[in-house]
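Predict the 3D structure for this chain.
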Amino acid sequence: MKADKQSMLLYAVTDRAWTGSQTLVEQVEAALKGGITFLQLREKNLGYDDFLQEAIELKMLTTFYHVPFVINDNVEIALACDADGVHVGQEDLPVEKVRDLIGPDKILGVSAQNVEQAIAAEKAGADYLGIGSVFPTSTKKDAQPMTFETVKEICNSVSIPIVAIGGVTKSNILELAGSGVDGVAVVSAIFAQADITETTKELRKLSTEMVRSDRR
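Done. Predicted structure below.
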């Protein structure tokens, strides 16, 4: 699996806050049926054994649907479940160190909030960037939304694929048209919804429209 521009179109980040009567694996399969193009497993509180078991199950699912699968922050789990890669933030392990640990063939995603971080991440071996927060978000309440111009500047500063994250919903996704991003990353816009599959289909359609208008 590779992290190309097409795989950034609709990037889902898990959050078990909305699992309710469903398991996280069931929710993810519903999102895969709806057309997500990339999956990041983010777990902050699970113990190692439960985390690994969940990661193995999701790796099997994403392989079946031919969707890249990365683990947020945890290189050990990513290697243990043979995930396609790992995603790290600015306060996690240095990008060069992560690349050394996972090797040249795994996907390495990096979060960036400005042009300097974006350029540094690409030079250090990142395969794609997650930039944001592009809108106000409840997931990270202390995140200050970046301006449209900053999004454009970051996109113009690097050659690797870029996905926009933070507060993206069906109602604001088209505001990113013309920014240069290759897609959007969403959490609650998928996993907090009653009908995950149908919502995902709608989001994919909107993201496709957003990217197409950007490339005309």
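The radius of gyration is 16 Å.
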